[in-house]
Amino acid sequence: MQQLVLAAALLLADPSAGPTPLVSTAGTSYLTAVSIAADQPVKVSAVTGDYLYWQFPATAGQRPELAVDVALPAQGRTGDHAWTVEVFDGLRRRQACVGGEQSPVAETSATSVTLGCRLRQVRSWAEPWDGDPLPGTYYVRLSSTDLPEKDLGLPVEVSLKLTAPTGDTGADQGSLAAPLVPDNRPGKILTTPAPTVPAEPEEEYFAWVPDFSSRWIWTASGGVLAALAGLIGFSWTRRRRV
Amino acid sequence: MIHRKLSIVAAIGLIAVAVPGASPARADETTAEPPVVELVLDVSGSMKADDIDGETRMTVAKRAFNEVVDALPETTQLGIRVLGATYGGENKKQGCKDTQQIVAVGQVNRVAAKNAIATLKPTGFTPIGLALREAAKDLDGAGAARRIVLITDGEDTCTPPDPCDVARELAAQGTDLVVDTLGLAPDEKTRKQLVCISQATGGTYAAAQSEEELTDRIKQLVDRAALPPPVTPAEVKGAQDCATAPLLAAGVYTDRELIGEHRFYRVSVRDGDELRASASIALDRPLNRDYGVLIKAATVDGRELVRGVDAGSGRADVISAGLRWSGDEEPALAATSDICLIVSNSFASATAAGAPGMPVELSIGLVAASRTPDAPGLGSGFLLLLVLVIAGLIAGVLAGWLTRWWVAKWKEN
Asked: Per the record, which residues fall in region Disordered (chain A) (predicted)?
């Protein structure tokens, strides 16, 4: 009932949020992380000390950004609470936040704490040994990292919003054969190597033609200029003859 | 000396919250089993204390339970276990065996569940450890993701065994068992014990000072239990060296690793495949402030190929690292031998370093290797224009001279 009222209030407050339903749960581990989408409102009741997990998909060129607001309990707090929002990629590798207040400390008197994290632009390809953000699943973990032991288990309200504006993809080369999405099936212990059939690469005609970008313009205008320069050079030799 | 600390430990087994509608996003051929929830309620003597909004803890707990039972989805399967509910005597030995399942695990029968709750009276001891053991037994074979919700107002009065050790031992016994704990107006000792129990099993702890908080929290826990994990990890036991390490297919695995231990696994990566592996270690016990985890891919004879590492400090539930390695990098190696994965940690604990080890979750993926992109086919920038213009100019001049020479020669002939 409370959640319905909350959802209604949110819808009234933000008409653009109409079609995206409110997410009112959070997972408690990587495996149970609750899926969210960009611009989808998330409002979750939890307690201090909880570890809350969400996951979202990202594609090349996006710059995902998280904005989190935690309403702190009015009573029962005895000291400062340090909060943190962390983002991990599909391989559970930590991703750096390049913007936003990732690990603020809420003073005892504060009524709420605001966290934020902006990721680097997701690249279309990276060397296997590289830690760049790649297309695939991303995990968000919100937790309080440091608080008086007495303050564990007090109720809080968490609201979270994800935005994923797309940046300029012109500089990126290459693409990932499969996005970094965890292979969630039960493992199997083998006695002999599995006879995996190598996946036939899809025959893509014109795959060698790069997507349209400013390079096309540079190269084509370079060709035109070169042709003009050729004509000029040719005319120099003729003029000398005359 | 048995004091009046007879908290009503009612071990209520809230059984199996199975919501098929809340299926994971990825529909694999192997659908995850529904999770099973066991609600364990403390009905010991201390629940008589009337310190929650002027009413006794028992009254409040009963009302909260009724409300939760009413709010449960139709598909929810519910079982309830109580502890300290029947034996009112002073004999500790007998009092510490006092735990019964009052509602068997199954689809929830609201009337029966409410009737069972209504008859509870704050009576006896608080054998939390035993109740947890029994609750785990109630849930045996009932599903993969098992959840116990323990609600108590006082610490265990039957130690040993320490309920925290019991929880860790139960969690180590096999498939996912999570204990969420709820303290009713808890004192410091109770809080520490409940935090320890939840930490040992990857569960959560919450304190309830009012009926509203209690109801809200139980509902939250039931809601979370209704979202089962998309996969039940397979159990595996990593070896101490690469030669004897188990050969793993793609998928998710669980293992246990002692502090400072190295665990070896093997994966067969072919030329044209890319190995993706991640390892997460749960911090299930009190640890020193700083810690780290390392996952390494190496050849069978020990040459390192790539590593993933992460470190942290302070409170955390899990720490993880991941790596990618492409078979295309060394086709000869990929063709002839397996790749070794080594998971190690740099934890330290002043109190609990021994067995069972800390829970490890290993996730392995094998996908097609990504091709390294060629140098760009197109150029950009003023340097490019300048080079092209100069090249064009030179070409034009050469073409002019050639033409002149050719015309002159043609005229001579």
From this structure: 165-187
